[in-house]
């Protein structure tokens, strides 16, 4: 682990006209560490992720990755490629985050060819290695996305992101669109990947239930602000903010009765 | 009758109805496809199958009805109508093909550029297309003929310009939707260049739409080319071309020799209807089977 954080966010703010979607969010993510950003829809967690990944413009505040700022929209190719190796993202909807006309394997090979000096058999071997790592086989590699299940597509999206060997993987509600059993598989897969290589996760979710399986620290967002932050175990067992308590209470468990929020 | 037997009878009946529906839909499609294929083949092999030189006049056989020597009769200078129809299929089909392919290519390029570049570019391209859209194709053709002289090439050029907005408008809407799909953001984040994303990912995904759009337009462009020739802004005599043949045969209608206009008109109608049916069937298939 190095001293330079993988990700450092200072006073990040996003305004849409009069409305402030994200209000002075600061985060710090050390190398190899995983952080969950939790909150209900509209809490600004996805907007935060989109600003960090450069998909949304920043109203004010700074994002630095490995000590470097985000590349601008006119950044040169080398700079963009370097940025790609710092941060990758897995999107919520695996149906639209893959090109529907491209075979899964071809999509991964395309990314590999862009980033690594690999050709021919070597490229294919690395591609199959990645597919194998996320639990996909040759048959699925030759399929187009519409012939795969939601879970398989999300595995493909993860493999594609891993192809560039990023330092940080942003998972934006990456399991929210999947069945509960498939969610568990993907969460296990993500935990497994972390055991094999140095990678940090920024896990954006509304579901506190999966957080302890993946993240050491958690940040709770509400109405664009961070209301609570700390080690996962601490926040989950001894929440200081009443909103966090509400979120914890709404995680389904044995004997759980949905309660209306006041 | 047990409920099992009942279910099987009902199932059989439903299956039969579905089969009939499918067959009827398919039959029309197959018939339309056969007509289009036949006409295209006739156009390609016209010099081989036409019984006469399309421009050979015969003063001894003027304005004749159907006979063993001239299946569809002769025109007012004694030229064989069947041969002229076969040869006429070439410019009559080629001109609208050039129009649709040209409008399809340029329209798609403009639409994708507008959607992808956005902002000022999008506004400029859309504004130009809107201006073109405001001009009826006929007005453009008259202007083109006035400036460059009447001819099939000018008609093709003006029609291509006139059809650009029809393609570009629809494609731009879909390109905008495509551009905002997460996969494009994902590919950008993965470090792929804009050109590659557009050419290798966005455009291939728009291709079925472009194909349907141009295929359905083909029938209409054929009609337009024929109409331009009919009013003298397209093919010029003595070229054998369907629209021009309808015009040249017109005096004969009153003189009791309607065959030239009649058969040329029939050729246009049958082919355009077949094209429309084929285009509609194609669009159902291509857009229904997506995703």
From TrEMBL, chain A:
GO biological process, one term: transmembrane transport
Pfam families membership: ABC_tran, oligo_HPY
Taxonomy, superkingdom: Bacteria
Molecular function as annotated in GO: ATP binding; ATP hydrolysis activity
Start and end residues of each ABC transporter domain: 7-248
Gene3D superfamilies: P-loop containing nucleotide triphosphate hydrolases
Family recorded in the similarity comment: Belongs to the ABC transporter superfamily.
Disordered, as annotated region: 233-262
The name this protein goes by in its record: Oligopeptide/dipeptide transporter, C-terminal region
Organism: Streptacidiphilus jiangxiensis
Comp. bias (Basic and acidic residues): 237-248
This protein's UniProt keywords: ATP-binding, Nucleotide-binding, Transport
SUPFAM superfamilies: P-loop containing nucleoside triphosphate hydrolases
From TrEMBL, chain B:
Gene3D superfamilies associated with the record: MetI-like
One term under GO cellular component: plasma membrane
Keyword Chloroplast applies: no
InterPro entries for this protein: BP-dependent_transpt_permease, MetI-like, MetI-like_sf, OppC_N
Domain of life: Bacteria
Domain ABC transmembrane type-1: from-to ranges: 93-279
Transmembrane segments: 27-50, 93-117, 124-148, 154-171, 263-282
Swiss-Prot/TrEMBL keywords: Cell membrane, Membrane, Transmembrane, Transmembrane helix, Transport
PROSITE patterns reported in the protein's UniProt record: ABC_TM1
One Pfam assignment: BPD_transp_1
Topology class, membrane: Multi-pass membrane protein
Family: Belongs to the binding-protein-dependent transport system permease family.
Designated name of the protein: Peptide/nickel transport system permease protein
């Amino acid at each position: 682990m190095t001293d330079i954080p993988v990700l450092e966010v200072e006073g990040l703010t996003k305004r849409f006209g009069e409305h402030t979607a994200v209000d002075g969010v600061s985060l710090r993510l050390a190398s190899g560490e995983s952080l969950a950003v939790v909150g209900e829809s509209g809490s600004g967690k996805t907007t935060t992720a989109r600003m960090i990944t450069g998909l949304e413009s920043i109203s004010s505040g700074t994002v630095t990755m490995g000590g470097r700022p985000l590349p601008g929209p006119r950044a040169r190719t080398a700079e963009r490629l370097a940025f790609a190796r710092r941060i990758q993202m897995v999107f919520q909807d695996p149906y639209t985050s893959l090109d529907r006309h491209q075979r899964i394997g071809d999509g991964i090979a395309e990314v590999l060819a862009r980033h690594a000096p690999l050709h021919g058999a070597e490229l294919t071997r690395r591609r199959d290695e990645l597919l194998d790592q996320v639990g996909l086989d040759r048959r699925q590699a030759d399929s187009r996305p519409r012939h795969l299940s939601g879970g398989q597509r999300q595995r493909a999206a993860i493999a594609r992101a891993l192809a560039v060997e990023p330092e940080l993987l942003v998972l934006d509600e990456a399991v929210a669109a999947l069945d509960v059993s498939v969610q568990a598989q993907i969460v296990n897969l993500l935990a497994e990947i972390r055991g094999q290589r140095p990678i940090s996760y920024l896990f954006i979710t509304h579901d506190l239930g999966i957080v302890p399986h993946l993240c050491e620290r958690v940040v709770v967002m509400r109405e664009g602000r961070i209301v609570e932050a700390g080690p996962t175990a601490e926040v989950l067992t001894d929440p200081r903010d009443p909103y966090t308590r509400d979120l914890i209470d709404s995680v389904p468990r044995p004997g759980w009765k949905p309660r209306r929020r006041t | 009758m047990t409920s099992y037997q009942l279910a099987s009878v009902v199932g059989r009946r439903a299956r039969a109805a579905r089969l009939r529906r499918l067959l009827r839909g398919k039959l029309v499609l197959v018939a339309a496809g056969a007509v289009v294929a036949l006409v295209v083949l006739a156009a390609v092999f016209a010099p081989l199958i036409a019984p006469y030189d399309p421009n050979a006049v015969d003063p001894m056989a003027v304005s004749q009805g159907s006979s063993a020597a001239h299946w569809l009769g002769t025109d007012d200078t004694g030229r064989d109508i069947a041969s002229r129809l076969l040869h006429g299929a070439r410019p009559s089909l080629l001109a609208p093909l050039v129009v649709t392919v040209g409008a399809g290519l340029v329209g798609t390029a403009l639409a994708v550029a507008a959607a992808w570049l956005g902002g000022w570019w999008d506004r400029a391209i859309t504004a130009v297309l809107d201006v073109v859209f405001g001009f009826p194709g006929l007005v453009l053709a008259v202007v083109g003929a006035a400036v460059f002289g009447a001819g099939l090439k000018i008609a093709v050029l003006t029609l291509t310009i006139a059809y650009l907005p029809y393609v570009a408008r629809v494609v731009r809407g879909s390109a905008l939707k495509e551009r905002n799909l997460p996969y494009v953001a994902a590919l950008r984040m993965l470090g792929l260049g804009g050109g590659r994303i557009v050419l290798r990912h966005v455009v291939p995904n728009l291709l079925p739409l472009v194909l349907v759009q141009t295929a359905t337009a083909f029938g209409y462009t054929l009609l337009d080319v024929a109409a331009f020739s009919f009013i003298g802004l397209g093919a010029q005599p003595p070229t054998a071309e369907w629209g021009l043949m309808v015009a040249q045969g017109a005096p004969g209608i009153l003189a009791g020799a309607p065959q030239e206009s009649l058969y040329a008109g029939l050729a246009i109608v049958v082919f355009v209807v077949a094209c429309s049916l084929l285009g509609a069937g194609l669009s159902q298939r291509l857009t229904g089977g997506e995703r």
